[in-house]
Amino acid sequence: MQDRLAAALRNAHAAGDTAAAQKLARALRASMAEQPPEAAPEPPTGPMLAPETMAAAFGGAPAAAPSIAGLSMDPAQLAADILPPAMEYRDRADGMIEVLPGSRAAGVAAMERAQREQAYQEGQAARAEYDAALNPASWVDTVQHQAGGLFSNTGSAVEGIGKFIQDTYNIPVGAPLTSTLSALFGEGAPDVTLEGNPLQASADSYRNFGESLQEGTGAGYRQMMARNEWGGSLADPSSWTLGSDPSLRGQLERGGEVIGSLLPVLAASYATGGSATAGGLVGGGMAGSGAQDQVEDELRRMAADGSLYERSGRYRELLDGRTAPEAALEQVIAEARDAAFYPAAAVGGAGGAA
Known about the structure:
Blueprint: H1 2-15, H2 18-34, H3 51-57, E1 67-68, E2 71-72, H4 75-82, E3 89-91, E4 97-99, H5 104-134, H6 139-185, H7 200-215, H8 219-227, H9 248-261, H10 263-271, H11 276-305, H12 308-311, H13 313-320, H14 325-353
Antiparallel strand pairs: 1-2, 3-4
Helix pairs in contact: 1-2, 5-8, 6-7, 6-9, 6-11, 10-11, 11-14, 13-14
């Protein structure tokens, strides 16, 4: 039994499975504790006892600790064989052993995690290439992607129109009336402002359906679009890029997205007999909603990389006032979305009306 436990212990140690090695070591020690100790050798008798015989019989040079499958059964030596230096570990309340931060073992573990992550990323990239080769881009993908973009843009327009409706009521009616009722009846006065975008649910439905269509395209088409992603800052032409690996078809597809973004505006104008107001409303709603999404994405990116505290005075103010980081981020996002909507809506509305 002990031979099998010792062999399993050595295998677990060689595989780097520390948790399994710990459990096996405990089991092996328990097995050894249950084994009755060997009887001490009887001292030899006789008239003549040689010195070496006396040493062997009465505790001369200490014998080596017993071993099983090449592992010493001495507790201290067993721990040294199984684990790195003890100073790199500490016992936890649950009986397990924890690696100490900053130790050699922690560094080895971090390096192994990095190697596993790199191997995973390489594996994912190889799989993406394989899937793209099996499912090359087709014109069916083009139709599906552009249709998805049309639904997503319609969702943005609906969300923007809902924002117009909300503010058109709240600013001149809801907010003043709520203030008047609070002054008359105190804390028990009702809040008659319009809470939230009244068309948000409908807008989300359009967007979700559009995203599902685009995500359902083939692997080769998605790879092509990812490699033809336009980027850069509008204020810095030197940063403009057509993508990591631009192609003629990929650029035409991206151009089709721009043309497709105009379809909700044209449809609204056509449905109202060429009304510039309808076109401006839809165009402004799309532009304002798109600007809100861009601002939110950028703020969340800065929060993730740790640069938001340095770049946002409002975020610092909230944190310094002991607001929780998550609540502070959501507050900054809400305020930034409101601030971004109308400047972009004005530009988009002018274009839609034209």
